[in-house]
Amino acid sequence: MVFSSILFLLFFLPALLLLYFCVPKRFRAARNFVLLAFSLFFYLCGGVNYMPVLLSSIAVNYLCGLLAAQGRPRAIRRIGLWSACAFGLGMLAWFKYAGFFAENLNALGAQLPVPQIVLPIGISFFTFQGLSYVIDVYRGNAACQRNPLYVALYVALFPQLVAGPIVRYSTVEREITLRSENLSEFSQGVVRFLFGLGKKMLLANVMGEIADAAFTTPPIWLSASHAWVGAVAYTFQIYFDFSAYSDMAIGLGRMFGFHFEENFNYPYISKSVGEFWRRWHISLSTWFRDYVYIPLGGSRCSRGRNIFNLAVVWLLTGFWHGASWTFVLWGGWFLLLLLGEKFLWGKALDRLPVPLRHIYTMLAVILSWVLFRAPDLPAAFSYLAAMFGLGAGARDGQAVYLLLEYWPEWIACVLAAMPVKGWLQDRLAGREALPAALAREWAPKLAALALLGLSYLKLATGSFNPFIYFQF
Amino acid sequence: MKRISELFMTVCFLGFLAAALLFTVGREPEKVSFFENRTLAAFPALTRESAGDGSYTTQLERYLDDHAALRNTLLKVKTQADLLLHRPVVNDIVLTEDRLLPYLPVGREIVDSATVKRWSANMAENLKGIQDTAAEYGGYFCYVAVPCQYAYFEDDYPWYLYNRGDYSQDMVTSMGQALAERDVPFLDIRAEFDAMGHPDGFGSRVDNHYTMEGAFETYRLVMEKVAAESGFAFPILSRSDVTFQTLPNEYMGSRERKLLNLVTKEESLSILRPVEEVPFTRTDNGNPSPAEIYQLPASEDDLVTYNLYMGGDWPRTVIDTHRDELPSILIYGDSFTNAMECVTYLSFNEMHSLDLRYYKEMSLRDYIRTVQPDIVVCIRDYEALPYLANNGGAD
């Protein structure tokens, strides 16, 4: 079930809101139980077959959390920690990577059977959440949760269950048992949710259609101009798709009194690749930073060791996104750029005019998304070749058509990728006059309601509605 | 003010969800979307498999999308909004000043030249077999290529949109060569229309098919070729033998239908009547039908569609004019046959028409062997020229 569906909007969400808010606030446990039951049902809708994977992940992390808790003998705590890591990473290895490794070993001459495994929805996200819980408990950064239902609620909480953001246990630890749902939080959550819904339905889906058309066009038909339009469209699609999901998750969380960390911070205004990764999928990059990069030694070590640490992180980041060489190459591409910025051209880049730095960053990012989107390496290289004129020549009318056909969406994408909302809020913040106050208070809400209407229109009349990050 | 705005926001959001939920649940279920010309998703059945792999939820989401509250109204609102935004293509229809044309995506639904050649050769082999079947009893076979709307008006596409011009030409050339190598008679109607000055009025402005005028000229061109090559004698009607009557009804072509009839190009449908009436009897699928070749509307207020001609697609239709001195004909192929049949029967004793998409009683060759029509004509548009499937006549 996706948030941007009639099933979710008109059936799941109203039913949950009704039952949840019918339970008096003082019965926190009962409210949590309603939320957990609906979260598990939400996951069940994605396929009953996958439910045991989620439930076993919850159970193992709960038990390992008990073992890893402070106060126990160090050996027991280490068993808890390593058991959780072995189970979580083992599950990922089996469900996500077994087929990939078997295929590649077979290509080297092995005779292994290639397992046909269906990837359980959201496994990468809930596995990382479960791991972060046990590691935080082991490190003493979070208290061990004795109530298994609350561990289940943390791991399975539906807003972030299948596509993130990756919520740290410490972020919601207190709010699981002690949070305040109120009108202000609820309406803010609704506004945030509707902005996400609008981004998804009005921008990401349209850009997705353009990108899908370009990426599935045979290379001999793909002109450079068309390929670039397709790549830029995918650049917008992946941002608006994923950030929309995060917006909706954050908004839904807030309706129920949870406060999740931001996952995106206008990444496309970055002036370097390093800055881009501080603004993009923040919950994933900070997860790798805190649980992989720093434990490996981070940057407080020799240059060689630092390069090794970065290489491990980016190889894993690429692999986390999918079991394919395109993702490995995608991670490698960013590793090269980040190493370059750190050790080679970073200082020179800082001296360049801002527009040039921005162009450099966007070029690097757009090219990276081609690797990310292509189904395999040959397709990626064909597409990249077409972008540089080695397909159907430099230009054809298709790019012009796509620009003319979707001109409102292109303009909206450019504006929505920039912190226009923040600029407007800053401008209005200092003004005392009534119109400014009215605009500050009402404009986001009215805009959100307009987005709800437009999104519903798109929902009822369109059919293209995939979420990219569901596949991870 | 903050609290009022928060209350307003919450009430509006929850009110919207409640209203949309009630309208969706209370909506009279529909099975077909007329304007989209498709069957709407049915309520899915829960099975062990669909629950297990999550496909039940996907099917349910599709069902709810198709049956959402106010869907038909919203389709109109969306289409109208797209028109107001001056999108060059709306609902896959290219909007030009004079015509509504289909959008043809680049690099899709087309194949390379070598594949076209291979397909053409396969198709030509199949057609050669049909020709041989007819020849067993002295019958004559001809394959006719008619230009569909995008092929006839390919110059009307904006420069930046793909019109499949090169591909259409490749298909017709390839098919022509493959048939010539096998001595199968072939007629390219677009080339003939071009030789006549490419009259605008032969192709519809709002539909994939030709107009009645175009159908009549196609009839004449085909019959002249058949008469010249087959040796059969039959009357070929000229313009002075028929009258065209324009219907006052609003015509909704398939392109206008896709645009929910929000854009019209003021085209009317015509019917053709012979100056000298030819009495006939008609059967559809073996059952007697009224002796009428047009499905005329009940009143002038009713919309008419291309189904006016022959009443749309029938698996098998036979029109018998009871003139034993004349030869018989079998026409099969695309819906382009429908308008042409409205005049063709006038030249023959018996006219058989098969729509092989629906006719399953016997194979085409068996039908030909059983009925032994003197003349067999296959009419296909450029889009389907080398395709054996559907109306291609493959056994």
Describe this structure in words.
- The complex is a heterodimer of chains A (472) and B (395).
- Chain A has 472 residues and is mainly alpha-helical.
- Helix content of chain A is 73%, strand content 0%.
- Chain A is built from 21 helices and no strands.
- The model of chain A has no long low-confidence stretch (mean pLDDT 91).
- The longest helix of chain B has 25 residues, at 2-26.
- In chain B, a hairpin with a 2-residue loop joins strand 3 (89-90) and strand 4.
- The mean pLDDT of chain B is 92.
- In chain B, 38% of the residues lie in helices and 16% in strands.
- At the A-B interface, helix 1, helix 9, helix 18 and helix 21 of A face helix 1, helix 2, helix 3 and helix 4 of B.
Features:
heterodimer; A: 472 residues; mainly alpha; 2 domains; 73% helix; B: 395 residues; alpha/beta; eight-stranded mixed sheet; three-stranded antiparallel sheet; 12 helices; 15 strands; elongated
Short recap of the structure:
The complex is a heterodimer of chains A (472) and B (395). With 472 residues, chain A is an all-alpha fold.
Q: What is the total number of structural domains of chain B?
A: 1
Dominant shape of chain A:
globular
Annotation field: number of helices of chain A:
21
- By DSSP, the count of extended strands of chain A is 0
**Ranges of chain A with pLDDT <50 over ≥5 residues?**
none
* Strand count of chain B: 15
Helix content of chain A: over 70%
Query: Uncertain spans of chain B, ≥5 residues at pLDDT below 50?
Result: none
Strand order of the largest sheet of chain B: 7-6-15-13-14-12-10-11
> Structural class from helices and strands of chain B?
alpha/beta
Largest sheet of chain A: none
The fraction of residues assigned to DSSP E strands of chain A is under 5%
Looking at the structure, what is the overall shape of chain B? elongated
